[in-house]
């Protein structure tokens, strides 16, 4: 059984004990939040199931306190939350294990409440909405998920907001659309960037001419952190929309153009995804979410922009430029 452990920098190198913890820190958005904390010179705790991944991503940061938890051990989970004021929850699961989302949320909430954590921020998705009924979707749009994954994400949100209403902890959710950026390999655009830099032909999930939006991951971390720090944020859900509405084809065109290469794309239709799903677990699970390619959820984030007027959204042009530069540098 994996045990809770801490790897803390040498005494005197951290600026105070961390009051904020990133649960599921090793993912792309977790690393973005960590970068925002580093920029502010704030000590923080990173929590995850893989000690090796945490050490690789945060071991060189004197502001980071590393804690490895075992989600099957309540004592380990409580230890991960001990002494923390704010949890930013970014825990991911395999695409075929979405039934674990509400289970892990319940366990984490119980641990956080037992350790007197005051604030809990969930990084969410558009999945709980199901099929959109309006062109732009605000936070009060009905949540009627027709997919299993949407239902599990809805249950996850409901657990947190029920705890908030009961006065056990202050909770809030920031729903994000698809995302992209440096080091983000779990993106609809990952193979496009790789193809633009000379890799194999891009494999895209079609149709690719419908409206879509993407968040540049380095923008997501500061938004989550600003929300966590704002007392007015708690008790409700918020949206953080992409830089603009754009189609995948238009975005791919921008990526290939900036890379100076000729577009090379293979577009997968739903029947092709279903066929590939006979041999690939991930593709099989992707079929039920295909509606997002034909009936996209385009978010209205005007409420968040009023709450956080300094919110930064990197343009697609700049985001592409920075992503290509980072990929070239790491090649």
Which assembly state applies to the chains in this document? Answer: single chain
CATH class of the domain at 5-178 and 217-241 and 297-313: Alpha Beta
Radius of gyration, rounded?
20 Å
Q: Report the structural category.
A: alpha/beta
Q: Which stretches are low in confidence, meaning pLDDT under 50 for 5 or more residues running?
A: 1-15
Q: Any idea what the CATH architecture of the domain at 5-178 and 217-241 and 297-313 is?
A: 3-Layer(aba) Sandwich
CATH superfamily of the domain at 5-178 and 217-241 and 297-313: NAD(P)-binding Rossmann-like Domain
Name the average pLDDT: 93
3D shape: globular
What is the third-level CATH name, the topology of the domain at 5-178 and 217-241 and 297-313? Rossmann fold
């Amino acid at each position: 059984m994996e045990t809770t452990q801490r790897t803390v920098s040498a005494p005197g190198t951290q600026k105070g004990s961390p009051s904020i913890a990133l649960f599921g820190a090793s993912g792309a958005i977790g690393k973005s939040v960590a970068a925002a904390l580093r920029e502010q010179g704030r000590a923080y705790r990173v929590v995850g199931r893989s000690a090796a991944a945490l050490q690789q991503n945060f071991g060189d940061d004197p502001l980071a306190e590393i804690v490895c938890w075992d989600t099957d051990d309540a004592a380990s989970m409580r230890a991960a939350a001990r002494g923390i004021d704010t949890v930013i929850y970014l825990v991911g699961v395999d695409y075929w294990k979405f039934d674990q989302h509400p289970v892990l949320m319940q366990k984490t909430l119980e641990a956080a409440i037992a350790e007197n954590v005051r604030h809990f921020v969930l990084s969410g998705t558009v999945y709980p909405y199901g099929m959109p009924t309006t062109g732009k979707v605000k936070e009060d749009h009905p949540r009627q998920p027709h997919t299993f994954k949407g239902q599990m994400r809805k249950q996850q949100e409901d657990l947190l907001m029920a705890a908030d209403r009961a006065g056990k902890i202050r909770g809030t959710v920031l729903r994000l659309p698809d995302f992209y950026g440096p080091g983000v390999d779990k993106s609809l655009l990952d193979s496009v960037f790789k193809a633009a830099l000379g890799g194999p032909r891009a494999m895209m999930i079609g149709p690719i001419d419908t409206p879509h939006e993407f968040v540049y991951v380095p923008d997501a971390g500061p938004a989550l952190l600003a929300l966590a720090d704002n007392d007015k944020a708690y008790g409700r859900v918020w949206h953080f929309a992409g830089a603009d509405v754009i189609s995948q084809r238009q975005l791919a065109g921008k990526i290939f153009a900036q890379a100076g290469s000729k577009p090379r794309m293979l577009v997968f239709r739903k029947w092709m995804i279903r066929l590939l799903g006979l041999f690939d677990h991930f593709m099989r699970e992707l079929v039920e979410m295909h509606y997002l390619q034909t009936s996209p959820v385009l978010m209205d984030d005007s409420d968040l922009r009023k709450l956080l007027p300094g919110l930064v959204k990197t343009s697609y042009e700049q985001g592409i430029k920075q992503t290509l530069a980072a990929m070239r540098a790491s090649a």
